[in-house]
Amino acid sequence: MSLRTALSRINNAYRNQMNRTFENQKVVLAVCVLSTLLVCGAFAYQTSLIPSSRLISPDELAKILQSSKGEKPLMIQVGSHVLYSQAHIPSSEYIGPASTEDGLQRLRKRVEPLPRNRFIIIYCGCCPWSHCPNVKPADHALRALGFTNVKSLYIANNFGADWVEKGYPVAKGD
């Protein structure tokens, strides 16, 4: 075999290896993109997994808060601090985003001493209900701790449109 033939074979083998490497990189990139889309999709629609029996409308909650009868719920805002400081339901407590482990730990710590039948309302209002990353993890954490009287405030669009602009009671600041 001549030197030219040997070099040609080595060059072809190198090109074939590089093509396979490039194809493998494309496959890895495609898998990464698909995985990211699936994870984002799972979080984006998780609030829709909360049964309607565990939801409360803004109107229903406003009536409970205005009533002089019955136990008032513990209201916990599980969204961003910026949103809470701009406007929140009076007497609600800020816990932090339940989409983070820190927020979930603060939620667990806050409710730890409470009786498991305590009436608790969780809400966020950061974005449309179907895209909220905070309510479902909070609901799941409370259920996992054995709480049986938890309701999620159904905020279809955002807190401003579905609570503030409807004239329901609002507090500002921390």
Please characterize this protein's 3D structure.
By secondary structure, this protein is an alpha/beta fold. The protein has two domains: 42 residues; 116 residues, Rhodanese-like domain (Oxidized Rhodanese, domain 1, 3-Layer(aba) Sandwich), CATH 3.40.250.10. It is built from six helices and five strands; from the N terminus they run αβαβαβαβαβα. A five-stranded parallel sheet has the order 1-5-4-2-3. Helix 4 packs across helix 5. The longest helix is centred in the N-terminal third of the chain and has 42 residues. It is elongated. The protein starts with a helix and ends in a 10-residue tail after the last helix.
What features would you highlight for this structure?
174 residues; alpha/beta; Oxidized Rhodanese, domain 1; 2 domains; 5-stranded parallel β-sheet; 5 strands; 48% helix
How do the helices and strands line up, and which of them pair or pack?
Layout lengths: L2 H42 L10 E2 L1 H9 L7 E4 L3 H6 L6 E2 L6 H11 L8 E4 L11 H10 L5 E4 L5 H6 L10
Helix pairs in contact: 4-5
CATH architectural arrangement of the largest domain:
3-Layer(aba) Sandwich
H/E series = HEHEHEHEHEH
CATH class identity of the largest domain: Alpha Beta
Q: Could you please say which CATH topology of the largest domain applies here?
A: Oxidized Rhodanese, domain 1
